[in-house]
Design brief:
Number of strands: 12
Helix content: 25-40%
Oligomer: single chain
CATH architecture: 3-Layer(aba) Sandwich
Number of helices: 7
Bound molecules: adenosine-5'-triphosphate
Largest sheet: 4 strands, antiparallel
Strand order of the largest sheet: 2-1-4-5
CATH class: Alpha Beta
Order of helices and strands: EEEHEEHEHHHEHEHEEEE
Radius of gyration: 18 Å
Number of domains: 1
Length: 245
Amino acid sequence: MIECKNVGKVYRRGVVAIRDMSFTIEEGEFVYLLGASGSGKSTLLKTLYRDEAISSGTVMIDERDISKIKVRDLHKLRRDIGIIFQEYHLLPKKTVYENVRFALEILAFPEEEMDARIRQTLTLVELADKADCYPEELSGGQQQRVAIARALINEPRILLADEPTGNLDPRASMEIFRLLMRINRRGTTVLLATHDQHIFQRFHFRSLTMSGDSWLLMNQKKQLVLYSTIIRKKIFILCRKDEHA
Ligand SMILES: Nc1ncnc2c1ncn2[C@@H]1O[C@H](COP(=O)(O)OP(=O)(O)OP(=O)(O)O)[C@@H](O)[C@H]1O
């Protein structure tokens, strides 16, 4: 479970990226963070990964206050969290297989179990047949899937996805969204930051309407499937497990 209480983040020069944000995300949820450019989505994901320290409030992950984790113990937190970005950050001189293997080497994963784990993960992201290719031989969507495989290789309980489709065309984006949903159905909590509201239409949601302080999203049976709260003009949308199309 992820619990943020009154979280604030102020960068140098006094730039306020997050102001007094509170929410809870249960294990296994699929959470969309929808918001305009500059609304603080990336900052929020970075604070959950402890890549950025928060300025105020508390972030608890599985009842651990992550601000209190010592730098030398950060790897323990990050073992439970995978992260992907708009850019794929693959090693260009390593094959798909080697890129994913490298992540396991860093984690000092048992050598004898590596091959099975890598093959299994490449199968999950539907890249088993590309194991020997180099990144430059892959499409953008395929490169992102390598990045996803690398992020999932240690079977983290949480996957943070920061605009993973930002460089992709609609079709490749759709494949990535579907893959993230599949990963979520296997039990991984997914936080997806995007400013792409069209994904909801593409996933056959019926309407996204404004009601008072909240956005409501109905499916084709007019059931409420998403809700959101507007936090200081920033849109924050939660989608509960198994409720997406
Ligand atoms: N390292 C940094 N130093 C100073 N200010 C920063 C830093 N990173 C982000 N900001 C500022 O914090 C605010 C939120 O930025 P952030 O990148 O979190 O937004 P975002 O919602 O992810 O935007 P986008 O959709 O464009 O990626 C912006 O005003 C940005 O300029």
